[in-house]
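Human: If only I could read backbone structure tokens as easily as an amino acid sequence. Underneath my words sits a plain record pairing an amino acid chain with its backbone structure tokens. Take your time, and here it is.
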Amino acid sequence: MTKKWFQIGMVSVFLFSLALRFWGLERFNTLVFDEVYFAKFGNNYLTHTPFFNAHPPLSQYIIGIGIWIGSHIPFWHDTVNGLTGSLRSPWTYRWLNALTGSFIPLVVAAIAYQLSYRRSFALLAGLFTACDGIFLVESRYALSNIYIVIFGLLGHWFLLLALDNQNRRRSFWLVLAGIGFGASVGTKWNGLWFLSGAYLIWIAAWAIHLIHSFLNSKLLFISPSLKESGGRRQESAETQLIASVQESGVSTYSPPSPPSLSSQTPLQNLTQLNIFQMLFYLGIIPAFIYSIIWIPHLQLDKTYGFIAVHQQILKFHLHLGGNSPNVHPYCAAWYKWPLMTRPMAYYYQTTERIADPLPVMGPPLPAGAGKVIYDVHAMGNPFLWWFGVAAMLFLVGMLVSQAVIPWVKEKRFSVPATLNVDTWIGLYLVINYAANLLPWVKVTRCVFIYHYMCAVVFVFLAIAWFVDQCLRSYYQQLRVLGVTITFIILVAFIFWMPIYLGLPLSPEGYKPWRMWFNSWI
């Protein structure tokens, strides 16, 4: 793919995301789902109204800034309400989220490019991210999860850029990475998992490096003839492994890097960072950023100090109850997220006729009276998520096979001096996916599907990688598979778009056509 077509493709993805997020942004002149908290909190900062915040305050600052800017724009005020505590247009407390969410596909694409230098992989990653439903829904309302994700992803992108540079430029990008990670945690505490993913991939790189060095040092005590024969056996095993991968049809060939770029992808430079750099840039700086984020809130509400407010937040979350429908009808434990067995409705109302005014307040009509359904469902693109989980499992299998096959053939454990690009990509995606999902195993409070957003972005990258491998394969069947998967994801996004945007549906169009399972409702 040429640079020109790549740029055209990424601009198209951005404009597509932007249009969907801004179209009909004022459709529901009310507070949708947790806007009853975050939109109000953002407005409280503008009216200097003290309040207790059960999360770090960064996202509410940003929503408040959006309200202030939106209130000074002399249009898009056709509808107003006083639900935030002041007379505001819904557009004012939603537009900045919509703009921010539009950039997430670009950041995901940038990460994909830095991982591989492959434009096709980057474009697919951006496109698939733009075709997800829960990211679209979360971007269209004054909610906070968009900010956890974009700041965490920016932290990862800046880290990859730092690894791609040296000296002062590396320090510059590392500082920005620390700021990004600190801002993610300053939105919600689970933003910390993005930072833990960065540490884990760094630890993995050093572990691989040290194991390889240790195994090489043992060869010093082997006779030259044995080393020579062992080297031939190792070369033969590597040749057989490459041949077996090629026979599978999925190409792992990496095109030569442009002359202006390093011959190595950034992840291969992880061992150039020592423990002191990690602790300073990705330890002290995020902690400093997180601390100063709290200053405006603590100046507004002086009920609790810095330590006390964290104790109160922890107490609040510990008393939310377990993952049971008795606590909340949409509670969904972590193992229900990957297959999307329990999405949730953010808004649901009915009318008798499509010409009736949009319902924004009060209970729904009696059962059977509503002929038109307006539903905003926090639900991913089903096929994107399902295919993505399969791709993630494929990556796990690929990593395991690359470790096991040489051991089976040679009867000894070996670690190559340099991992190929796709192995590094697999490690990066699997480790970061696990880092953002597995901590929820120990969480006992009621959690929801939107808590999966930090992990599922790595699923989007995984399916983009797999489709890119198929499209670049020598085998026509795999190229057809890649095109088919892409087509199904695009069609699925269009098909479920009415419940992402809250468009009117007939009862039949709602169920069974779009609500395939009772657990989805």
